[in-house]
Amino acid sequence: MSKAIRVHSHGGPEALSFDDVEVGHPQAGQVLVRHTAIGLNFLDTYFRSGLYPAPAGLPLIPGGEAAGVVVETGEGVDWLKKGDRIAYTTPLGAYCEERIIPAERLVKIPEGVSDEQAAAMMLKGMTAEYLLRRTFPVKPGDTILYHAAAGGVGLILGQWAKHLGATTIGTAGSADKVELARAHGFDHVINYREKDFVAEVRELTGGRLCDVVYDSVGKDTFPGSLECLRPRGMFVSFGQSSGPIPPFNMALLSQKGSLFATRPTLFNYISTRQELEASAKALFGVVADGNVAIRINQRYALKDAAQAHADLEARRTTGTTVLIP
């Protein structure tokens, strides 16, 4: 038997229970993995609460990224062996000590990257990768606005965008978070609790505004995010930590300057093995080169996942957090 965090009925952090589960042995194309570190993400709270439905229903094991070692391989898996260090991101199932997972979803962790770093950066780091390199390919001279700059994706994206030559503007909700974001690549950070971020963006850009706004906050930053975009700029809504954006008339985009808008998700950008490998390679590359630092700001025991969720939703965490089995 192994241990896992499961959700039997949707609700708050108290809905997370620490259960015994049967794992079994891998079949053809599968691998049995023993986790050494598990990433914590706001997305996990959406599945727990029921905001995002679980494809297989309840009970569900939350968690979208982890690192560990190969324990056993199934038939046909010839590129992995027992003891290999691996990492992955997947919609659900990471909050556990051991699991069976398709080998095609795994990537090997290179030398110079720790298990905790890999667990903390797969989902967040590959999210930063597709946002910066594929949803809106950032180039030198671009100006970007990123909300929740002291969050896990933000601390990676700020460094990476700076490496790409962009002018980076972030928003954060406290003085400590403002300083944290500044230390991770953001040229300017606006405390949205003290200042109007739209007015500040106008002033910082001399009225030119931004080429792209990356918004994972949702309701609280809309439609202000649109006000920060230059004509034909792109609004990228990839989360809703404050609640979903209310329905709006598409004509609003033309009124604000023929804007582009998209609602991407990571798993549409790594749906093939080729895309997964390319995204992970780009991420590991900027980390190995020292252009992006991955720092673990909080650690919780796996059994304390409910406390981790409570702290995350109360904005008591910054940057990256891992659960340790």
UniProtKB/TrEMBL annotation:
<dbReference type="GO" id="GO:0008270">
    <property type="term" value="F:zinc ion binding"/>
</dbReference>
<dbReference type="InterPro" id="IPR013149">
    <property type="entry name" value="ADH-like_C"/>
</dbReference>
<dbReference type="InterPro" id="IPR036291">
    <property type="entry name" value="NAD(P)-bd_dom_sf"/>
</dbReference>
<dbReference type="Pfam" id="PF08240">
    <property type="entry name" value="ADH_N"/>
</dbReference>
<dbReference type="GO" id="GO:0035925">
    <property type="term" value="F:mRNA 3'-UTR AU-rich region binding"/>
</dbReference>
<dbReference type="Pfam" id="PF00107">
    <property type="entry name" value="ADH_zinc_N"/>
</dbReference>
<dbReference type="GO" id="GO:0003960">
    <property type="term" value="F:quinone reductase (NADPH) activity"/>
</dbReference>
<keyword id="KW-0560">Oxidoreductase</keyword>
<dbReference type="InterPro" id="IPR013154">
    <property type="entry name" value="ADH-like_N"/>
</dbReference>
<protein>
    <submittedName>
        <fullName>Quinone oxidoreductase</fullName>
    </submittedName>
</protein>
<dbReference type="InterPro" id="IPR011032">
    <property type="entry name" value="GroES-like_sf"/>
</dbReference>
<keyword id="KW-0521">NADP</keyword>
<dbReference type="InterPro" id="IPR002364">
    <property type="entry name" value="Quin_OxRdtase/zeta-crystal_CS"/>
</dbReference>
<dbReference type="GO" id="GO:0070402">
    <property type="term" value="F:NADPH binding"/>
</dbReference>
<dbReference type="InterPro" id="IPR020843">
    <property type="entry name" value="ER"/>
</dbReference>
<feature type="domain" description="Enoyl reductase (ER)">
    <location>
        <begin position="11"/>
        <end position="323"/>
    </location>
</feature>
<dbReference type="InterPro" id="IPR047618">
    <property type="entry name" value="QOR-like"/>
</dbReference>
<dbReference type="GO" id="GO:0005829">
    <property type="term" value="C:cytosol"/>
</dbReference>
